[in-house]
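cron nightly-structures :: item 1 of 1
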Amino acid sequence: MAKPEHTETAIEHQHPYTKTASSPKPRPKNSKPDSTPKPHRLNSGGEKWTAKMEALSNEIKVRHYSPKTLKSYATCVRKLQSFLKSKNPDELSTEDVKSFLTFLAVDQKVSASSQNQAFNALLFFFRNVLDKEFGKVDGVVRAKRKPYIPVVLSRKEIDAITENLKYPYNLITQLLYGCGLRLFECLGLRTQCLNFEHDILTVHNGKGKKDRSLLLPQLIKQDLKDHLERVMPAQLCKPLAAGQL
């Protein structure tokens, strides 16, 4: 079949009222304009803030702080950047910090602990990244600290909980309660942390990357030995019975 002499593109045949991919979506007649605040565009200080954030990360990692500290400090500094509309970080002053902390308490209504965390983050940022003295921070509206009464379970309640837990969760709960361990400390215990001969439990790399020794409760001593016999090869259980591990 012969081809037509004059071929036209699809666009030439397109109806004038047909929408194209680039045509803007028409707004209904009775619709209101979008009042959602647009994200703030970084000014010339944005690049400097990026460099400062990298320096903040390096300073925290050099001190071997936890990843949670890095995340919380970086979040606080980013909030300060947004609050100051990416003001040049080299021009920050104590007055900027005062305004930001007051903003957190009055407008954001953060808790006292969150405001204190922001204060510590900015103190670290000023001293170790900006190489500035933080100065005296007065006249800041402080978030109110609510009275907190901890919930303390009785001995009978603890016994009722452990009796209804299955192995090995009951053993974990007994270690948490009997030794005062944090959950990540308990889950990080190894065989060498247990000294049955002297009834000592050693926690390595606890909070603050510190080690500490604790008394091993007599009530769970045999349970711990039974647990190790289950999970350890038979050739390693002989010194365990003699209390050498």
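cron nightly-structures :: done
Confidence is low (pLDDT under 50) at residues 7-21, 34-43.
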